[in-house]
């Protein structure tokens, strides 16, 4: 196999990290084209529809049938995504902020354990940053990303996409409830599930089918 084919195969297999590494600096250095297109066209929606349309055309019927038979794995994945991760993630982020952490260290001079040494830790940021991380934990992962990663790792991409799409659809109803339950800042907020469900069906489910 010639060198060009090896490079092409490598890029094809690892296009996600390569594309991410290349596109982020480009977007930072030259955001004008993206801003212009965003003002003229629904770029985000077009990308989502195209991505799921391509993913849907690449699946074989046998892969889909095999994924549908893995109901235990599917149920476990959905529970982890929609229940376990939000609860554990948000509760860990509710831990008190700290500036100094007592740390036991070995005294180099006498070989004894020194419990009085403390280290200064930087502030994690404002309260809004913590709320943003909690929202990240409550929300399911983007449906396309795990499919791309699992495909690159030669995993069961059909099962991954099934879990991702089902979790995204169910999250329309669970995320508002989990958000008001787990995040104190959103206890008085209200979110319309029907509006979100319409967008999920239009931009994810329909192109995939």
UniProtKB/TrEMBL annotation:
Q: Which domain of life is it from?
A: Eukaryota
| InterPro entries attached to this UniProt entry | Na+/solute_symporter_sf, Put_Na-Bile_cotransptr
Question: By its UniProt entry, which Gene3D superfamilies does this protein fall under?
Answer: 1.20.1530.20
Family classification: Belongs to the bile acid:sodium symporter (BASS) (TC 2.A.28) family.
Protein name, as recorded = Uncharacterized protein
Native source species? Paramuricea clavata (Red gorgonian)
Mind giving the lineage of the organism this protein is from? Answer: Eukaryota, Metazoa, Cnidaria, Anthozoa, Octocorallia
